[in-house]
Amino acid sequence: MANVLEVKNLTKSFKRNPWSKPKEVLHNISFSLSQGVMTGFLGINGSGKTTTIKCVLDLITPDSGDIKFFGEELSRNVKKRIGFLPEKPQLYDHLTGGEFLDFALKLSRNDISTSNAESEKKIDEILELVDLKNAKESRLREYSKGMYQRMGLAQAIIRNPQLVILDEPMSDLDPAGRSLVKDILKRIQSEKKVSIFISSHLLQDIEDLCPEIVILNQGEMKYTGQTLSFINKLNPKFEITFESQNSFKTVSVDSEEKLQSEIDKLRNQKLNIITIQNQKSLEEAFKSFIGKSF
Amino acid sequence: MNQILTIAQNTYKELIRDKALYILIFFAMGLLALSILLSQLSIHENLRLTIDFGFSGIFLAIVAMTLFVGSTLVFREIDKKTILFLMSYPLSRSQFIMGKFIGFSMMLCTLMVGLGIALAALLFAIQWEPTVSFLIAFYGIFLEILLLLSMTLLFGVIIRPILVVGAVVGLFLIGHGMNGFAEIVARGQNEFLKTLSQILKWSLPNLENMNWMNQVVYAEIIPGRTMLFASVYTLGWVIFFLSLAIVLFRRRDFV
């Protein structure tokens, strides 16, 4: 699969003032995102996640490094293929939901030839997707936190991007709000096959959504790869549920090798495997991993 | 161009929906009302005083708007972090600055037209005969406001709003005072002051070049050449200030 984003040796340091010594906040960060895959971006506070995202989007100029989207440098044409939702987004509160999305749509297009009817249709479609159709005529300042976050998400996806970058999209949301945002992300990922890069502290959500993860710690790259492999690397524990004599039974194993042999054994006995669950969560694995790397 | 107009349209909409604008309109209307009261002080100069105070009132209100709202134009986007999602769009930083400039200019133009109509109505009420100079003087105010706005945007990219106001007020006073300063200095023998006067003349915009309020008050004709010079002069400075603002804005990190 082609990479939608490739970051190589990204380094960034900040100076508190022009006379102070620069402090390195990102050190040789390298990772890539596969096409059509949801990737989680993990790290404790201050690990450099937001700085990395800002460098990638040219909001901050990196000291060094190579950033390529779809094999190209970031340009206005490339930006048309990217959607971004910043952390705790601030939108234009003086606009209504419909006006705001119209603004976003106009901004993402170079031509003004698109008819109003077409734009209206697109806006209604997106509002429906993020469950804000009834709030189209309300000013954004009247929106609740969850609605505001979903409007932020709507502006990120209205230009039909191939890559969506989301910085903490579910922080500050209640469980119902989180669940709604997760459902929207799953839908756009499966229906439109977009690549999604999510930075989050909510590891359960990342585990639910992202088959791949990138982990940063203290400005250094710690892991990039499959979520399941990461969890399995750190004391794996699997539970297999299967059907036997009209009842469900479970069996636990503690390594990937044992898991495979157990699956083979059950299949040989013509038993129907219902689920295979990893009993260790991403959160537990992450905690022990970060603990080790301190 | 589409992106510039989109930003301009949004800036216009944001300012028109801002309550601060209505406070300033109220302030300007208050100054216009004051001009009628003050004009009553003189029996013979009634009309001239109304024109003078009316123009000054409108000018002060528009300058105040340019300074206080213009100084926060870029700062607000950075402070509220709306700039983060905005810059992820296919929008260059120069388009953003140009859009902000055009949007705010459009709003100031609307405000000037509104206040100009109010002043004209007021003058009609006291038997004033409309002159072309009246319109030209408004054009002069608009040129000066464009220049002040480009200055405000330049400073707004690099320093905080309160400092922007200070810096632009300083340049505004120098810009209006440099002719008078040059006249005083020319009468004396101090070479240093003469050099300083020349430096000011060539390094900073002379805002008296587009000040035609006296010509309206005394019903004088403003020559076309004067207007053309003022237009080109303003355009040159606006391009200079905006180009500098764009260069500095391009180098800015949004941490």
| Sequence of secondary-structure elements of chain A | EEEHEHEHHHEHEHEEHEEHEH
Report the sheet-strand fraction of chain B.
under 5%
The quaternary organization reads as heterodimer
Gyration radius over CA of chain A: 22 Å
Largest interface: A-B, 38 and 26 residues
- Unreliable segments of 5+ consecutive residues of chain B: none
Helical content of chain B stands at: over 70%
Number of helices of chain B: 11
Structural category of chain A is: alpha/beta
| Binned strand content of chain A | 25-35%
Q: Based on Cα principal axes, name the global outline of chain B.
A: globular
Largest sheet of chain B: none
Biggest sheet, spatial arrangement of strands of chain A: 5-6-7-3-8-9
Count up the helices of chain A. 10
Please mark out the parts of chain A with pLDDT under 50 across 5 or more consecutive residues, or reply none.
none
Instruction: Please give the largest β-sheet of chain A.
Output: 6 strands, mixed
Secondary-structure element order of chain B, N to C: HHHHHHHHHHH
N- to C-terminal distance of chain B = 28 Å
Gyration radius from CA atoms of chain B, angstroms: 20 Å
Structure keywords:
heterodimer, A: 294 residues, alpha/beta, 6-stranded mixed beta sheet, 3-stranded antiparallel beta sheet, 12 strands, B: 255 residues, mainly alpha, 11 helices
